[in-house]
Predict the structure.
Amino acid sequence: MKAVQGIMKRLKLELHPEKSKLVNLNEAGFDFLGFHFHKVQSRVSGKSAPLTWPSRKAMKAIRTKIHDLTSVSWLRIPLQEILSNLAPVIRGWCGYFRRGNATDQLQALDRYVRRRLYKNFWRRGNRCPFGKVS
């Protein structure tokens, strides 16, 4: 920790005493800039490797944005406009988090978007163009 503090001091930066701590990645991970960092044993090689994926807070934030853009209050707005508002939000979020090991989280987000759009179609009385959503 003293070595890190020395480097930070040379960069004229300060560590926040409550937020900065040493973490054993084998036991617990940490969140930084929306990513969760954790050391996980590989299913293929059996070796431990540090992996990153979107943090729970980041997942909750994107689900909240998607929920807000597909809520009941948007039923009077044409569906094409809802989709055009939703697409850049999802594209930007996926573009940021694609760098990590986010396959599971991206698939969960995809399922969430499909459920929200299916619900929106159902409330409008339309048939869902992408079939039954589970």
About this structure: The helical segments are 2-10, 56-69, 79-97, 103-124. The beta strands are 30-32, 35-41, 48-54.
